Amino acid sequence: MRYKLDKIYNFDNIENKISKFWEENSFFYSKVDNNKKKYSIVIPPPNITGKLHMGHALDNTLQDILIRFKRMQGFNSLWVPGSDHASIATEAKIVENLKEKNLNKEKIGREKFLDYAWKWKEKYGEMITEQINKLGASCDWTKERFTLDENCNKAVIEFFVRLYEKNLIYRDKKMINWCPKCLTVISDSEVNFKEFDSKLYYVKYYLLNKKDYLVVATTRPETIFGDTAIAVGSEDSRYEKLIGQKVIVPLANREVTIIVDSSVEKNFGTGVLKVTPAHSMVDFKIGLKNNLDIIDIFDKTAVLNENGDKYENLDRYQARKEIVKDLIENNLIEKIEDIKNNIGTCYRCSCNIEPRISTQWFVKMKELAEPAIKVVKENKIKFIPKRFTKIYFHWMENINDWCISRQLWWGHRIPAFYCKNCNNIIVSRNRIEICTKCNSKNVIQDEDTLDTWFSSGLWPFSVFNWPKNTSELEYYYPTDVLVTGYDIIFFWVAKMIFSALEMTGKIPFKYVFVHGLVRDSQGRKMSKSLGNGINPLDIINKYGTDALRFALIMNNSPGNDTRFSDEKILSSRNFTNKIWNAARFISLNLENKNFNLELDLDNLLEIDKWILSRYNFVVKEITENLEKFELGVAIQKLYDFVWDEFCDWYIEFSKINLNNQVLIYLLINIVKLLHPFMPFITEEIWQIFNDYNFKEKKSISISNFPKFSKNLVFLESEKNVKNIIEIIKSVRNRRSELNISNNKRTHIYISSENYENYENLKKFKNILIKFCYAKNIEFNKKFDIENSIIVITNFSKIYIPLDELIDIKAEISRLEKELNLSNNNLENITKKLGDKNFIDKAPKNIVSKTIEIYENLKAKISKIKLELEKYVN
């Protein structure tokens, strides 16, 4: 059995060993225990589309800190892991993968495609599990779930059927958002609007007399073959006489009527709108009001169909080029303007969305949104930080019905069945073979699947096997906190809230802890195009998991983006080494193998009281920070305390008079404080010191988190040692300014008018001698020391005689000579720069160099003067 730490912290071997130790001992397993308070988190399930990125690393680190903290506080803590089937994203990846094998989705058919998809899930699901484990996540892996597993599927079907039975789900033909690349409808919340450089085409629409015309401004001339009317504003007097007349659609040569509609913007373009009901949300509404024909000119890939005349089989953008070219040739374009245009794009593939009329399934949202708004307004669910409630309310208060059907195979298939004989629609929890209306066996199931967010919205309670009323559902639900990025508040968070309230009558979680994005060192979003993406596993392999976690949390604040840089990760690595070296020093200096963690409060030195009191208040502050989700603030305080006060000051002070009991007490409790943030190194140190029989838990992960103690409050000692540190820093800084090496020592004289300070200083004489590099120190109320520099602190004067350290006269003489020389050089340079001929005729680089010399000389002279002033004092 070993009792000493290795010289170097070998994170690779240690992390693998510790992970295995945690797994073998099931420290993170949780079961229902009604005698204990629970704390539960369900992981935001990562998509099974590939490797985890830095955003996942941050998200999982935040959750792990919270769950480890609560576990150490004695809560029955459960973190449920899992992954998301991510219909649209995963299907796109699989289709791409099949193409590489010269296979086609439609040709191999649904059954074989799903076989490929499940194999994909097994491969990438295992990879994700390994990566989450690598991050040190203390999940209960016995409860791992998948959003497409059997129990989740039962929950999804139950949700659909219940909403349908309450008339909250319906099927209708509507204008929807169509992605021509993913080949599926997407909901309004999945449309990202981006600004593009576009053209505004002013197209002539001739009246039937073929002399007069109206000019229509449009950004989409390729939809001209779908025009079924021309609309003008109801309050636009310019076109009042033309209402009801007909115009000829350019190139299509069809007659359409000029109608009036209040939605036409008078100040956009010419105030005349071409109405294309099949390919515009606005135009579709105008078409319904005016009973206009609907002409669909695109197929599902946004290629012009047979209604596109000679432009059939052209992609929409190629068709635009050809149509504009032909309009110009026929003198049908008056002008073209450059404009900025906001265009809806697919949130998954960034392809421009195509508005399209289609029969789909929808959820009525107004009724579901009201209670979801209410629980947030009543603070039953709190957003951290609070400002994100505005985003939530804005979306929920302006919500449209949710299109939930998707033209995909990978996902939860819609539990709706159609009778081909009588057109009966049956929504059922079970598969339907015979029509319930006409008894026909000619029944087929809807081909479409449900929106991924439909199943993800049930995640907080479906993981506990809802709709069954299980003991786990009763105990762990509602969960305590959801940790998530601000970019999916409306995608996911809102859906979980209204789904939970509708299905369980309870909120899904008490807090929504919102974090920002992980950006690069320049503040840019990480992306493939910029080549600035960082694989968290690469950082782990080079620096260790603890260093990665520390770097992600340092300076992190709720709701704000965080920058990840080389400086941060190097600082993290250095901190890891600092902790290890401190633990190693203590292990090398322990006198025996048996310790308990009880302090002998009656036999403490002043420095012991100081560090214990400082530690005690750090415990209090960090606990408060963690409870308020201020994780970045907490780790900064810990860093400052461990690095500065414990390592740089207390350990150095303690070398004069070692108190092993205090050292080990502090070390053990410091690693407890650090454990939620840096689980591996703290567990390793814990295990090594556990061999000293201080009778603690088998793992630090289930030990007790430190608590504030009134018995460890020593405010007077804190004040005294703070004063001592100020003296030491001041003396060292002054010696450094004078370039005095540490091996040169002299007497130091310290005076203080305050008797109490004066007496307290004497207690620290040995410390002051050592750390101020003194031969001896004398204390008195007043001193008058010649040839010395004086350092003034808040409560004392320190006299440092220079006779033994520096030849003051020689140093002053040297500095004065250097000052005279520099002043002469500056005078010459100043004359040169004042010469107009030199400025006008000399090469620019010579002038610039001369100005640089001038500035450097000024800086040098200022520095010399400051040096001389030091000796005057």
UniProtKB/TrEMBL annotation:
Cellular component GO terms held in the UniProt record: cytosol
Keywords annotated in UniProt: Aminoacyl-tRNA synthetase, ATP-binding, Coiled coil, Cytoplasm, Ligase, Nucleotide-binding, Protein biosynthesis
Alphabetized Gene3D superfamilies for the sequence: HUPs (3.40.50.620), Isoleucyl-tRNA Synthetase, Domain 1 (1.10.730.10), Valyl-tRNA synthetase, C-terminal domain (1.10.287.380)
Methionyl/Valyl/Leucyl/Isoleucyl-tRNA synthetase anticodon-binding domain ranges (all copies): 608-750
GO biological process: valyl-tRNA aminoacylation
Top-level taxonomic group: Bacteria
Coiled coil (UniProt feature): 805-832
UniProt keyword Hydrolase present: no
SUPFAM superfamilies: Anticodon-binding domain of a subclass of class I aminoacyl-tRNA synthetases (SSF47323), Nucleotidylyl transferase (SSF52374), tRNA-binding arm (SSF46589), ValRS/IleRS/LeuRS editing domain (SSF50677)
Localization per Swiss-Prot or TrEMBL: Cytoplasm
Domain Valyl-tRNA synthetase tRNA-binding arm span(s) in chain numbering: 807-869
Principal localisation: cytoplasm
MF-aspect GO terms: aminoacyl-tRNA deacylase activity; ATP binding; valine-tRNA ligase activity
Positions that bind ATP: K528
Residues spanned by motif 'KMSKS' region: 525-529
UniProt xrefs under InterPro entries: aa-tRNA-synth_I_CS, aa-tRNA-synth_Ia, Anticodon_Ia_Val, M/V/L/I-tRNA-synth_anticd-bd, Rossmann-like_a/b/a_fold, tRNA-bd_arm, tRNAsynth_Ia_anticodon-bd, Val-tRNA_synth_C_sf
EC number assigned by the record: 6.1.1.9
Sequence motif: 'HIGH' region, positions: 46-56
Aminoacyl-tRNA synthetase class Ia domain ranges (all copies): 18-564
Catalytic activity field: tRNA(Val) + L-valine + ATP = L-valyl-tRNA(Val) + AMP + diphosphate
Family of the protein in this entry: Belongs to the class-I aminoacyl-tRNA synthetase family. ValS type 1 subfamily.
PANTHER family assigned: VALINE--TRNA LIGASE, CHLOROPLASTIC_MITOCHONDRIAL 2, VALYL-TRNA SYNTHETASES
Subunit structure: Monomer.
Function recorded in the entry: Catalyzes the attachment of valine to tRNA(Val). As ValRS can inadvertently accommodate and process structurally similar amino acids such as threonine, to avoid such errors, it has a 'posttransfer' editing activity that hydrolyzes mischarged Thr-tRNA(Val) in a tRNA-dependent manner.
Protein name according to UniProt: Valine--tRNA ligase
